[in-house]
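Notes to self after the call with IL:
- keep both proteins in one doc
- input above output, always
- annotate only the second one for now

Protein 1:
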Amino acid sequence: DKVHLTVDLLNEHPIELEQISPDQTTDQIYRLCANQFQIDRSLQSYWNLFFYYQENHHYFLIRPAFPFESPFHSLKQLEKHFQRPRLVLRKSYWNLDDDLKLIESPATRD
């Protein structure tokens, strides 16, 4: 059984993942996103997947996606508690000095 999964960026740009297994883990989904954006392997540790809900074009953090969970199934559960839960690819660090490393790469500039 294959499903469609949308992963958003904070600028609301969607990453469409087609024909994936609903049981794929966060790590597997993350690797698909990183490959689609051609994020250099040395920079991949700066990014992660998070669950957000969206309201009036604003995103509100619910929690990080755990590496072992299925984002597809988790989104289905979050729909019971939040309107428009989303899976979002975003930077996973809070040190602004790391931004300089990412600015040098065209794939991670936006």
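Protein 2 (the one to annotate):
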Amino acid sequence: GLPCTILECMLYGMPVLTRPEGAIGEIIVDGSHGLLTGSREPEPYAAYAIELLGDAAAYERVSRRNMQEAMEKYRASAVQSRVLAVYRELFAGFSAVSVPSGDAARASSA
């Protein structure tokens, strides 16, 4: 799975310091979104945090990237559109099944 705290950190522009467990390794790119390490020891996390605290430009790059990606890829409407696209593709050959478009689905859920 993907912990919500990872997406919350990204949304608030915080660097993510984590291990590649579950789907985390598919979402977080080491150096781009923060630190992705297999270590269970605190030293790599502390060293990266200290590095970012000493480099405002690097912190700002990670922060902006995380906020932008969280808004573009993981907000509810973006996820809903991707899920509906999968269902439309899966049921394309079935004439008795109608999957609403993204706009119609949003209107009916409002």
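Annotation: The first helix runs from residue 4 to 11. The two ends are 28 Å apart (CA to CA).
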